[in-house]
Amino acid sequence: MERTNSVTTKNTLNIKKPSASRIALVASNTPEAFRKLCRDYWTWHFDESLSAAVQLLLSTELGWETMSQLTTPPVGEVISPLGYALAHEDKKVHDAALQVLDATVHIPAGTAYIGEECAPLEMDGFEIGVYPVTNAQYQRFVQDTGHTPPQDWTDDSYPANRGDHPVVWVTCEDAEAYARYVNGRLPTFSEWQYAVRGADDRLFPWGYEIDKPRCNTAELGAGTTTPVVSFRDGISPFGCYDMVGNVWEWTATTYDDEGNFRVACGGAWYYNHDYSTCTSYDFFSNGYAEFVIGFRIAR
Q1: Which of 154, 220, 238, 299 is deepest in the core (most CB within 10 A)?
Q2: Minimal CA–CA distance to 265: which of 275, 253, 280, 254?
Q3: Is 106 part of a structural domain of the chain?
Q4: Between residues 298 and 233, the one the model is more confident about
Q5: Which structural domain range is residue 162 located in?
């Protein structure tokens, strides 16, 4: 089930249109033109609060006409327009991209089906990040707080054009520090399961079968992380992106009675589909960091 937005979005990152068409639509500055822009170009989460940010991004030259096609493995390096926006010299463009990545969705109260046993559990409502936390978001946190950056960064900066890739090499303690910075927390294991599965026992966010690449796992052939906005066809029933594959995601749930280990969910790019499902989890010590572990926030 795909989340319904007020603007219809396209389910591909491959757009073959002349830039003049986009520029003409931007210049016309009408509601109809904006809807067409979003229909033709915008593959990300959209709600009305993002309208100004989206309009600014679509009016900026960010490689909109040359976005990479992600449906034919191996994909090679992937850079999205949002990645270019986060590296843009205009701070307004950069901040507009951050606003898009900061989006959350409300998960209503309901029945979740937990684990491979699909045990029903009544859940309260909560908010969760549409995307895993990205390098650019984490850099803002590092700059504002002086927190130690991840070990794969150089001079407090993430790799070029990877602002919209999930941050990695963060411990559970780092993730919790970031969550406090944005007045949030880590999701519990049950909340994460509910957000990825919705109100049924599906194996993947989109259903029960693999019919085409819908997430970044070993089968995709990327060999590294991909932008968190890459897989519109892989969103969860509540509209969350990248909940399987790309990176494991820390949760607030402890694995052991002493609280020294935390559960992480969803698999990663390094693993195949067998280990990247709605029910996939592993556990790591609170102070452990690795190249395939990230997180998303909840409230």
Answers
A1: 220
A2: 280
A3: yes
A4: 298
A5: 68-294
